Fold each of these.
Amino acid sequence: SQIRNLDDLLHSRLKFGVHDTVFNKYYFSTATEPVRKAIYEKKVAPPGTVPRFMSMEEGVKKMRKGLFAFHMETGVGYKFVGKYFNEGEKCGLQEIQYLQVIDPWLAVRKHTPYKEMFKIGMKRIQEHGLQSRENWLLYEKRPKCSGRESNFVSVSMVDCYPALLILTYGTILSLMLLACEFLYLKRQ
């Protein structure tokens, strides 16, 4: 696919939908970066239309139909992708990071003696991979793409006609050669 970043997404012919949450409504409507703001104004909530916020199930179903980009939390969204998409369709999915949010930290009172201890503890959790491990266990993983070979295409006799023709001519030719060999051997 030619869509690799938000600018490509903005200038594509894909329609755009967003999972209907308070969080998403706030971040999309208050975007200040030019590309993100343009995506909201042109794709999500064009003037004179109802903003395209929808349930996750509805958005994933529209994605499956094609030419539709849907913003969702991947951890929950992959469950619906696994439910509604065929194996071959999962291979065509592509992700683009939209929100630039940082991991949450603890809020502590100013000048508390525990501030440094919390800071070191949170950094160690990040460094040792405990946060990543918990996210990996908690959220649904991206559905495995088992390849394009899982798509079956029915083939009719018309599609196989050239192969059947070659097989038939080959069989007739081999039977004729067999008959010639028998005749040759009987005459000797």
Amino acid sequence: EKDLIHKLFKVLAVRFQPHPGSYTRMLQIPNRDGIDRAKMAVIELKGNPFPPLIVQRRDTEKTLLNQLLKGYREDKKWAASE
């Protein structure tokens, strides 16, 4: 644990020195359904070198299914207005 003291003051303090605050963020993760249904969270340091925990959602507006549903809604709306 002695190496953690070095990391705290020599690495992390230097990284967050220019920031006015909010060095961490808390992300809720899915509950443990099979065990005890406990609420779970992860605390993440901002600017960490690891991949983000939250995967960015891809744009699905142009998928075939969504285009068909959009056309159906427009047809239904047009038929209701007649």
Amino acid sequence: MSALSGLAAALAYGWFCFAYVAFIASGALPSEARPGRRAPIRVVVDRLCFFVAVLVIPALILRLAFKVAPAGVGFVVGDVASWAPATLGLSAVGFSVGLFARKSPADMASYPQYLPQRWDVRAALLEIGSWTLYLAAYEFAFRGYLLAAILPLGPLAAVAVTTALYSVAHLPKSPKEAAGAILFGVIAAALALRYGSFLPALAIHLALALGNDLGALRAAKKAS
């Protein structure tokens, strides 16, 4: 992974903060204080907008304005044979944590965010596909260009800063998620630096999110 220059780094952080605050202000992010979910189609649109704002636009700006290839900031497959074993193991752990962790009433009211009237193949594909795009943007930011922006200060500083920001980004949702984000943030950043790709973190994050959604559905069914 390549370090970003001063101006590119500043713009990366500035743009992400602007986009993320706008996303929160739009009401797209569920929270413990105000649990609930939007209409299914609105959730899909929210995730697509986040994907464009946090992945597509920064990637284009870095490429066109600063000649930084996406691969240089983690947008690359890398050596799959190298990162797949650890990723599969951690994905299994993440899915299990999401599935079996205790769900509060607020969790059951907010997750899954995408909740159709009836689950079928189309609904499942929209759930998985929209989650994948949303989390790809999330990981390209935190384990991609934001991580690369702090690399001039050293890998430990890059991991510490991005993990702290990642935890703060979860505070609007709940203190519990902000605390959990610390451990995940350290692991995800370390994997990104080790393998030069954000894809391992994306796979683990997706497994965790889908496990959490299934766990919330199961808990809600038991409670009804």
Amino acid sequence: MKRVEVASSVIRAAGYDPHTKTLEVELLDGHVYVYRGVPAVVYRDLMNAASVGQYFAHFIKTTYPCTRVE
């Protein structure tokens, strides 16, 4: 999955697959997490948020099932 770099003190990049509703988040520490069942609007709002890290923490991190892959 292609990831897009973001301006954040926590997140390096994020990618999204609309067919599987899968969000991939790469943190600055190098760890990569996959979140499943994420609606496209949530990814869009994440990428357009004034604070990507705050949006991630409030609306994604504890809302969707997650697996650490790297």
